Amino acid sequence: MSGTGEALDRETMAAAKASYDRCCAAPRFLEDFYRNFFARCPQARTMFARTDFERQHKLLRHAFGLLLIFPKQPAREPTILARVAERHSRRELGVDPSLYQPFIDALIDTVRRCDQDFTPAVEDAWRKTVRKGVEYMQAKY
Fold first, then answer.
1. How would DSSP label each residue in 101-132?
2. Which of 70, 106, 125, 131 has its CA 20 to 30 A from that of 5?
3. pLDDT in tens, 74-84
4. What is the pLDDT of residues 57-103, one digit of tens each?
């Protein structure tokens, strides 16, 4: 029985990754994400006041990639998200755990617009795949 669940997890993660690849082909995916995120979470905009968005887009692309593979990583420290989590913790940038839900909702909304093959199943795959990494980030605050 557990083999079936494992295969489903791989399939779910593969669906989210395929969607991400399609989104990355969209010319303004990352810009659209930030526009959506700031619309949902205006208080986050001030955290980006002095941001070099060209650099930030590269960091975000990398972070999305890490979130998408995090569930299949070994559950030991340091994880592949340890550095990102520390950077976003109260010790550095101070990204409050409450900001992650609007982040995910903005991500899903952006994927909905940028992935021509978006379906409720794709949304579900994204949410299930990034949940573990987001929970890790929140716990490391």
1. HHHHHHHHHHHHHH-TT--HHHHHHHHHHHHH
2. 106
3. 888 999 999 99
4. 999 999 999 999 999 998 889 999 999 999 999 999 999 999 999 99
